[in-house]
């Protein structure tokens, strides 16, 4: 495949943009090649500026569950844009999206719209601290909740990909308030909470960890966390930026029957436009300014284009059988891939919940970040590059999840399975 135009675009971008990209993983650094620059996308297909098309399993890192350019979402954005791009004043669209979010998540009684997942988690942490009057938070190694200072400690995603899970620039004085535990290790969580009794404001987690590949919670883990938070009056923050409206309409909380005190959302609720949200119990949310004293604000919060895209998207997701179809497609891919990987000598481990998944280059199972890091990263890089040559666009890091959309066809899935079969044979 010819990537000459992408290579040239990358060289030009590097002059004015650090690393040539506006989000580190996009640089393809950990997979040993230059990034492809995108010209357009439609349905399950993404096309680069050299004219190469790929079956896309990145889906803008999750939001494009309807596939790219769904006509109803495009129409919603176009008609909103024709009314005005941003007012810095309230619109009814914000309430309409808020109502849909609250209907999907019974534990969200009130919700505040922001512009990114990072803003959602950062603000939820501040709110939990303001509500409890405590400073410490507990997060899990390999979970990624955006790049706010107190959350960039032992973080997954790009931070893990580039080996800087705790970033320079985060003052030690901030980081010391962040406790970290091993994902799925309840004994360690309990020990840390007891060692810091009465000081922990919040426990934040991804209910399915999607920033160290795809790591489901072990049976009972979420329920035990819920109980511990109740016992110790700790705010449980469930970060559903990735899983919300993805693994079920009501997200991982519906799927695993667990309820956070605060919930963070993003990605799908913006239909591909920049949106985040955090919401939860009324008594906590009312502490937020202007009702309460915990300050949080944003010029583009509740932006009408983003709200319109979100509303159109959620309405389509509510159609009968939507999540059954996502499940069927993902299970079909899983079945085909397990036949192919089972026949290969290369150790691989496929993990999936609904329409998010990952193939680790190791035996597995992977239940924690320490496990995920045991994968053969060089082999993953080679696999990624060869899959790209076969016309399959995967997340360019072993520590990111893949995403299914409703637009993926059986033909797409069969082509993907055949490509994995072919590529694995070249890695033997
Ligand atoms: N770290 C993000 C996904 N987990 C990547 C976002 C992006 O590069 O667009």
The name of the CATH architecture of the largest domain is 3-Layer(aba) Sandwich
Mean pLDDT: 96
What is the helix fraction of residues, given as a range?
25-40%
Class from helix and strand fractions: alpha/beta
Instruction: Assign the CATH topology of the largest domain.
Output: Aspartate Aminotransferase, domain 2
Oligomer status: single chain
- What is the count of β-strands? 14
Rg to the nearest angstrom?
21 Å
Count of helical regions:
15
Q: Which small compounds were modeled alongside the protein? A: (4S)-4,5-diaminopentanoic acid
The geometry reads as globular
- Widest beta sheet: strand line-up: 4-10-9-8-7-5-6
Number of structurally distinct domains: 2
The H-level CATH homologous superfamily of the largest domain, spelled out, is: Type I PLP-dependent aspartate aminotransferase-like (Major domain)
Residue stretches low in confidence (pLDDT < 50, at least 5 long) are none
The termini sit apart by 22 Å
Order of helices and strands: HEEEHHEHEHHEHEHEHEEHHHEEHHEEH
Fraction of residues in β-strands:
5-15%
CATH class of the largest domain: Alpha Beta
Largest sheet: 7 strands, mixed
Defining key terms:
39% helix; Aspartate Aminotransferase, domain 2; binds (4S)-4,5-diaminopentanoic acid; 2 domains; 428 residues; alpha/beta
Question: Summary?
Answer:
With 428 residues, the chain is an alpha/beta fold.
Question: How would you explain this protein's 3D organization?
Answer:
The protein is of the alpha/beta class. It has 2 domains: 4-69 and 320-427, Aspartate Aminotransferase, domain 1, CATH 3.90.1150; 71-317, Aspartate Aminotransferase, domain 2. It has helices spanning 4-16, 71-83, 92-104, 117-132, 157-161, 172-175, 186-195, 221-232, 251-256, 282-285, 304-317, 322-342, 369-372, 377-389, 410-427; strands spanning 38-42, 45-48, 53-56, 110-114, 136-140, 178-181, 200-205, 235-239, 262-266, 276-280, 349-353, 356-360, 392-393, 402-403. The strands form 3 sheets. The protein has a 7-stranded mixed β-sheet, sandwiched between helices. The protein is globular, with a radius of gyration of 21 Å. The mean pLDDT is 96. The structure holds (4S)-4,5-diaminopentanoic acid (HOZ). (4S)-4,5-diaminopentanoic acid binds next to helix 5.
């Amino acid at each position: 495949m010819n990537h000459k135009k992408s290579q040239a675009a990358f060289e030009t971008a590097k002059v004015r943009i650090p690393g040539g990209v506006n989000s580190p993983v996009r640089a393809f650094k950990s997979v040993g090649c230059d990034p492809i620059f995108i010209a357009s996308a439609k349905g399950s297909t993404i096309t680069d500026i050299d004219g190469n098309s790929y079956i896309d399993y990145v889906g803008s890192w999750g939001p494009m569950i309807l596939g790219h350019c769904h006509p109803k979402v495009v129409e919603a954005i176009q008609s909103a844009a024709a009314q005005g791009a941003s007012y810095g004043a309230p619109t009814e669209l914000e309430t309409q999206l808020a109502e849909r979010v609250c209907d999907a998540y019974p534990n969200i009684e009130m919700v505040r719209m922001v512009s990114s997942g990072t803003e959602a988690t950062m603000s939820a942490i501040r709110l939990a601290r303001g509500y409890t009057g405590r400073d410490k938070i507990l997060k899990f190694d390999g979970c990624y909740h955006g790049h706010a200072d107190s959350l960039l400690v032992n973080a997954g995603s790009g931070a893990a990909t580039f080996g800087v899970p705790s970033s320079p620039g985060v003052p030690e004085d901030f980081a010391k308030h962040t406790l970290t535990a091993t994902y799925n290790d309840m004994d360690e969580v309990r020990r840390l909470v007891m060692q810091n009794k009465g000081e922990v404001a919040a426990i934040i987690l991804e209910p399915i960890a999607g920033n160290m590949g795809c790591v489901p919670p072990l049976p009972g883990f979420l329920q035990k966390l819920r109980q511990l938070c109740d016992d110790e009056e700790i705010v449980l923050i469930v970060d559903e930026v990735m899983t919300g409206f993805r693994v079920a309409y009501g997200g991982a909380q519906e799927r695993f029957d667990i309820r956070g005190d605060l919930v963070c959302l993003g990605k799908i609720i913006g239909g591909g436009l920049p949106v985040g949200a955090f919401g939860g119990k009324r008594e906590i949310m009312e502490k937020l300014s202007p009702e309460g004293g915990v300050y949080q604000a944003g010029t583009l919060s509740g932006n009408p284009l983003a709200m319109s895209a979100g509303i159109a998207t959620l309405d389509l997701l509510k159609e009968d059988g939507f999540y059954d179809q996502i499940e069927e497609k993902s299970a079909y891919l899983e079945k085909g891939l397990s036949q192919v990987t089972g026949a290969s000598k290369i150790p691989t481990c496929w993990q999936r919940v609904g329409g998010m998944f990952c193939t680790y280059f190791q035996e597995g199972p992977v239940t924690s970040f320490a496990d995920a890091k045991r994968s053969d990263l060089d082999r993953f890089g080679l696999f990624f590059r060869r899959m790209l040559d076969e016309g399959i666009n995967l997340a360019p890091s072993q520590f990111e999840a893949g995403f299914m959309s409703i637009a993926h066809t059986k033909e797409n899935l069969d082509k993907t399975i055949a490509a994995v079969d072919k590529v694995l044979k070249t890695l033997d």
